[in-house]
Design brief:
By secondary structure, this protein is mainly beta. It is built from one helix and ten strands; from the N terminus they run E-E-E-H-E-E-E-E-E-E-E. The strands form two sheets. It has a seven-stranded mixed beta sheet with strand order 6-7-8-9-4-3-10. A three-stranded antiparallel beta sheet has the order 1-2-5, with no helix packed on it. Bound molecules: zinc ion (ZN) (2 copies).
């Protein structure tokens, strides 16, 4: 298994392609209602990417952004609806995160927490050993054992 950069990813229809040169170390499984709806699943898994380590390769004209009420911005393909990215706000400096499920292959990222579990689906409870937080990483960790 090689985990050398660059890491490529894209949407379901193939219109949108992008490349990541490096990921930031922290990644969480987010169970908040916005992430659940965005992915249509129990949780999202985004990993941070420094702005200068991310490049759109194709399909930028198909990339749409949705800004939710709290100002966070989610990026998706307007052709096939694939969830692609997250930004913590609208400013150019806002933290950029990439949906790990959109990557083509293996990536050197190991998610290290579950967050916003108080907002999670009742039909899915994570049973791994990762720390579990009711809200963000700064909330008091849930004790599940
Ligand atoms: Zn697409
Ligand atoms: Zn979330």
């Amino acid at each position: 298994m090689t985990l050398d950069a660059p890491y490529q990813g894209g949407c379901l229809c193939g219109a949108v392609r992008f490349e990541v040169l490096a990921f930031e170390s922290k990644a969480a499984h987010c169970h908040c209602s916005m992430c659940r709806r965005f992915h249509g699943s129990a949780f999202s898994t985004f990993a941070g990417v420094p702005h200068d380590k991310f490049t759109w390769l194709s399909g930028v004209s198909s990339v749409k952004e949705y800004r939710s009420e709290n100002g966070t911005v989610r990026t998706f393909c307007s052709e096939c609806g694939s969830s692609l990215g997250f930004k913590s706000g609208h400013s150019p400096n806002a933290l950029l995160e990439v949906a790990l499920g959109a990557m083509d292959g293996d990536v050197p990222v190991t998610p290290d927490a579950h967050i916003y579990l108080d907002h999670g689906a009742n039909w899915y409870q994570p049973e791994d050993d990762l720390p579990k937080y009711p809200e963000g990483r700064d909330s008091t960790e849930l004790v599940t054992k």
